[in-house]
Amino acid sequence: MAIVQMEQITKHYRMGGQRYTALQHISLEVAQGEFVAIQGPSGSGKSTLMNIMGCLDTADSGTYMLEGKRVSALSDNQLADVRNKRIGFIFQNYNLIPSLTAYDNVELPLIYRGVSANTRKKAVLETLESVGLSGHMNHRPAELSGGQQQRVAIARALATNPSILLADEPTGALDSHTGKEIMALLAKLHAEGRTIILITHDQTVAACADRILYIRDGAIA
After folding, report:
1. Of 21, 91, 108, 138, which has fewest CB within 10 angstroms of its CB?
2. Using one digit for the tens of pLDDT, what is the confidence trace for 193-219?
3. Does residue 44 sit within a domain?
4. Which domain holds residue 85?
5. Is residue 10 in a domain?
6. Tens digits of per-residue pLDDT, 145-184?
């Protein structure tokens, strides 16, 4: 079953009075349980594509179906609900809240979702254990290494049991050894049945996926 379906997605921007094409006629599908990498150089349009996939931005034209629902037909509240419940975001720079512990960072999206305290605690403990950080739950980001911070970010993405993990350059801020550990963790999650869409410029990172889509100048190459 296709969990992501895009048909003829186009996106333009205006900068300094000029019109730029960020994406041109993108069509792709991602099936449930797939691990797909979208690889391209800086400025290729891959971040714009990720923002549209993650319902953080909208296309100018074309159709985006997420789990069989037309995204353009959803209200702002429905889109916020999709981002909170259906998509788990993993960012290059972790996007953790510095003043919160690892436990609190993972718990936060569950609080926004209105999950009960007991259910939240179970989910947080399970996800932190699944990424190997059960012994670091009371540490704040500054007390953790880059790899540990990314593991917290992955646990936060997993906590809501999303349909898709959307990873934007998840190893970009890490050294090569730690990056390999993070990719091994993503491979483990995929083996457990997770659907993962990985955005990267790095061919070695992309090679960890089952399928690679190359994007250049806003088009699938």
Report:
1. 138
2. 999 999 999 999 999 999 999 999 999
3. yes
4. 33-57+72-220
5. no
6. 999 999 999 999 999 999 999 999 999 999 999 999 999 9
pTM over 0.90: yes
CATH number of the structural domain spanning residue 152: 3.40.50.300
What average pLDDT does range 77-84 have in this prediction? 92
Q: Which of 162, 167, 169 is nearest to 194 (CA)?
A: 162
Q: For residue 151, what are its two tokens?
A: 């593991």
Output the six-digit token pair for 9: 């997605």
